[in-house]
Amino acid sequence: MLILVVNCGSSSIKYKLMDMKQESVLLTGLAERIGLVGSRIKQVSHTEKELVLEQDLPDHKAALETILKGMTDPQYGVIEDISMIKAVGHRAVHGGEKFNKSVIIDEEMMQEFEVLSELAPLHNPPNIVGIRTCQALMPHAIQVGVFDTAFHQSIPKHAYIYGIPYDLYEKYKIRKYGFHGTSHKYVSGRAAEILGKSADDFKAIVCHLGNGSSITAVKNGESIDTTMGFTPLPGLPMGTRSGDIDPAIIPFLMEKEDLSIGQVNDLLNKKSGVLGISGLSSDFRDLEDAAVEGNERAELALSIFAYSIIKWVGAFTAALGGLDALIFTGGIGENSKDVRERVLKGLAYMGIEIDEDKNKSRGKEVIVSKPGAGVTAMVVPTNEELMIARETLELASN
């Protein structure tokens, strides 16, 4: 079965066309700067034919129409007709409490999903546009929603309820939801396979580290706690997000700096994290280079980031009642030997001894701890698209 995986952002669409018979990628692409000046689409086929279209993409509908034309292009495409695509798997960011697993999309589901835009105003609306457009352009294909929050619906109530009046949870569903769930599910399952362990008897902590970062405790194949919460803002300090702070800081800043609610929200989401600490960049590669050259605030930002990971790993090890594997994934987790080294040296008390040579690896599946360690430290590149395609295939086949 041919499945198209679609991930719609506010001004971009990432996509992959997959043949699920061999779980092979036939084509991958990115439409970017949708609705902006300089929009373009870059597409690469499994035969390494590259198509770059620099043209006006006024909205997601225009972008998806162009994407589908590229897939059937006689020279650069990989299929003869769009009807060959039997299902479309959509990355859907926030499913609230309603969607605890992937679902086939129908009108009732869409109405409920649109209501949830209140919980994810930056992410759900473009997801909805992408779904509606694919429904119109490919009415023959089964449409499936795969939710970032679904994997975390196994978190127990004592871990997801906040210490605020309970009636506010009942009224507004204010609670921990967690994100990056599709990544955490894939990576924890793949790690168990690599180590020859049953997912039903496996305690793992997955560190999804990128511009947005989250850590999840996985026990017997289920998420039992995670660092992100009601929104993707809490937990680790990230590229531009603050991570955990004292909530009283918010009204304090609003008063002292004469900030509106919107301005303080913008400050915490777009001007904080390692960018705010370093005053230099949200890109960890820039920070690592600057730290080597003696930039103290770049070094401070990296130290704070690593310390936060160490702290959360300790907390989640306690929540799990032990730990079999510590797994790094995401752009930083897969590629930054410096961040991994900082974290693993801080966790030496667990019996983890880092293998310096193996830790130099970038973007590959590798065990970076020495043999005999009480806890295995490893890198597993994430593959959210494959996870979305698998869940889409399961629903579409039934």
TrEMBL record:
Q: How is the cofactor bound?
A: Mg(2+). Can also accept Mn(2+).
GO biological process terms held by the UniProt record = acetate metabolic process; acetyl-CoA biosynthetic process
Annotated localization: Cytoplasm
EC number(s): the record gives 2.7.2.1
Provide the active-site residues from the annotation. Answer: D148
* Residues holding ATP: K14, H208, L209, G210, N211, G212, D283, F284, R285, G331, I332, G333, E334, N335
Q: Which cofactor does it need?
A: Mg(2+); Mn(2+)
CDD domains assigned = ASKHA_NBD_AcK_PK
Pathway of action = Metabolic intermediate biosynthesis; acetyl-CoA biosynthesis; acetyl-CoA from acetate: step 1/2
InterPro entries on file: Ac/propionate_kinase (IPR004372), Aliphatic_acid_kin_short-chain (IPR000890), Aliphatic_acid_kinase_CS (IPR023865), ATPase_NBD (IPR043129)
Main localization, broad class: cytoplasm
Q: Name one GO cellular component term.
A: cytoplasm
NCBIfam families to which the protein is assigned, alphabetical: ackA (TIGR00016)
- Which HAMAP family does its entry note? Acetate_kinase
Q: How does it assemble?
A: Homodimer.
**Function according to Swiss-Prot or TrEMBL:** Catalyzes the formation of acetyl phosphate from acetate and ATP. Can also catalyze the reverse reaction.
Which named protein is this? Acetate kinase
Q: What is the lineage of its organism?
A: Bacteria, Bacillati, Bacillota, Clostridia, Eubacteriales
Q: Which gene encodes it?
A: ackA
